[in-house]
Amino acid sequence: MVEEIRTYMMERWATNRLRFEKLADEEVLPNIRRNIEKTNSYINMWLVRMFDEHIFEVRHLENSVEKFTVNLKDRVCSCRRWELTGLPCVHSLSAMKSRNHEVDDYIPDYYRKSIYVEFYKPVIFPVNGSNLWVRTEYPDVMPPTYRKMPGRPKKRRNLEQGEIDGSDRKMRRNGFIVSCSRCKKQGHNKLTCKVPSTTQAS
Predict the structure, then answer these.
(1) Would you call 182 exposed, middle or buried from its count of C-beta atoms within 10 A (0-12, 13-18, 19+)?
(2) Which of the pair, 201 or 35, is modelled with greater confidence?
(3) Given a cut of 80, is residue 160 above it in pLDDT?
(4) What is the pLDDT of residues 50-100, one digit of tens each?
(5) 77: DSSP letter
(6) pLDDT higher than 70, residue 165
(7) Residues 134, 141: contact at Cβ < 8 Å?
(8) Are 16 and 120 in contact (CB under 8 A)?
(9) What is the pLDDT of residue 103?
(10) Which of 66, 84, 99, 160 could be a cystine partner for 60, CB 3.0 to 4.6 Å?
């Protein structure tokens, strides 16, 4: 399994390394650029009001209930999409356009080509098969010897309170209140009931 993981990672690293090196000179990744352009096509539906240089109130033109606060300096929006994805939402893009800010200045570094190229720069080298491995003078590592423990081995684990037993039909009686069918009182059953039965009396 470990060998399959190593082979998979080696091929994935090499494929991604070549793919990102062949990208255009544009710094922002293509799929991120398409995401920004798609979101940017909806900014005409939002009205921007400026509070100060960095804080804005963005309201939907048709639905006045949809109103959000944008802080370009802290890169947050009350819709929380900017914080969750790292990409500017439609409200923040509307605020940027109102102040003629460059969108690329607000895209995080981990969505840029240079970071991905640097990440996949290390190489995972291939490994020869076991038939070419050099044998050492040390003995082979063997699994530990099995030691049989005394007593009968346990076959079932301890169930928690309220957990179904192995039959999947019966619940544990922890917390169950017993009621007597003879005197109708709680805390005991008819076997331990001190009230004489009517059959015995007759």
Answers:
(1) middle
(2) 35
(3) no
(4) 988 899 999 999 988 899 999 999 999 999 999 999 999 999 999 999 999
(5) E
(6) no
(7) no
(8) yes
(9) 92
(10) 66
User: Tokens for 159?
Assistant: 């169930």
Q: Rounded to an integer, what distance in angstroms lies between the CA atom of residue 23 and that of residue 19?
A: 7
Give CA–CA dist 77/46, Å, rounded: 14
- Decide: 86 and 111 in contact? Cβ < 8 Å: yes
Tokens at residue 63, please?
Answer: 């639905």
How far is it, in rounded angstroms, from Cα 34 to Cα 150? Answer: 67
Output b/e per residue, 42-68; b: 16+ Cβ within 10 A.
ebeebebeeeeeeebbbbeeeeeeeeb
Structure token pair of residue 86? 């790292």
Q: Can you give the C-alpha Rg of the chain in angstroms? A: 35
The pLDDT score that the predictor gives to residue 82 is 94
In the prediction, which pLDDT does 22 show? 81
Residue entry with tokens 């994805």: 85
Cα–Cα nearest to 13, from 94, 116, 93 = 116
Q: CA 82, CA 89: separation in Å to the nearest integer?
A: 6
Structure confidence by residue, pLDDT tens digits, 128-152: 888 888 888 998 889 999 888 899 9
Considering only CA atoms, which of 42, 58, 56 is closest in space to residue 91? Answer: 58
**Distance (Å, whole) CA 109 – CA 28:** 9
